[in-house]
Amino acid sequence: PVPRCKPLRHAYEKEIVLYAHFKGLDYFSTECGYAPHAYRGHARSLLKDLEATRASTVAALGHSGRRLAVGAEVATKSLGAC
C-alpha cells in the first residue's frame, strides 16, 4: 500500500479520487467488506448530515483534531491489512 501524501490531507476524498482519475493514476476505490457493519458508519453518516448543514464541518473537525496533543503514554494500535 502507498501511504497518503501529506499535502493532500486538507483535500476531501472525492477531490483526491478526481485528481487521481484525471492524472491517470492508479487508486484503490473498493470499500472494505467489513465497512457496512462497522460502527464508524454511524459516525460517517452523522458527519455527512453535519456537512450538509454546514459545508466546513469536516475541515473544522480535522483542524481541531490536529491541535490536540496526544501523550506519549497513550498506546496506539498498528493497522492491519483489510
Automatic annotation (TrEMBL):
Gene Ontology annotations of biological process type: tRNA wobble position uridine thiolation
Cellular component, GO annotation: cytosolic tRNA wobble base thiouridylase complex; mitochondrion
GO molecular function: transferase activity; tRNA binding
Record has Membrane as a keyword: no
UniProt KW keywords: Transferase
Coiled coil: none
Alphabetical list of Gene3D superfamilies matching this protein: HUPs
Organism domain of life: Eukaryota
Signal peptide coordinates: none
Keyword Transferase in annotation: yes
InterPro entries linked: Rossmann-like_a/b/a_fold
Protein name per Swiss-Prot or TrEMBL: CTU1 protein
Species name: Smutsornis africanus (Double-banded courser)
Gene: Ctu1
